[in-house]
Amino acid sequence: MLFGQSVFQSVLERLKAEHETEEDAEAPAAHRVAGLGTALAFDVMEGVSVATQRVGQAYFDNLEHEAAASVAEKPAPLPEPDPVMPDHLTRTTPQEVSAELAISAADTPLTLSEKRRAFARANHPDGVALPFRDNATKRMMLANLLIDEALRRLR
Q1: Least packed by Cβ within 10 Å: which of 2, 49, 103, 128?
Q2: Residue ranges of region Disordered (predicted)?
Q3: Chunked in runs of 10, what are the mean pLDDT values of the chain (155 residues)?
């Protein structure tokens, strides 16, 4: 290290000093790009002066052409068919839900929690189509009630 710099840093400083010319050192910092001292030129329709042309409109004109091209390329989406209710969501009585859960005296808290999770995977309201969520909610409430009751009896 030379004077608190690594060898690499000192080489970079030396190269920078060699390439710096007197002209670069004396030139003021410019905040504009050279050659762009005038405003941007837009295509103007024949017979329309530049002064009356709205500069911001050119952007929207190009958007219309791009949007029309993208619409022409994409085929129209097919309408989605109406959802069909699964058979198990039609069974909403406590007896039917109880039969599906098949809770027995041999069940343990572990098996009951497994049954709850398995039932929720198949019947949770978030996992079914919107028109069938009421039935799924009823089924989940009944299953939770039956499993909670079985857990209370085990204790």
Answers
A1: 49
A2: 70-90
A3: 75 83 57 58 56 61 65 72 90 94 93 95 92 94 95 90
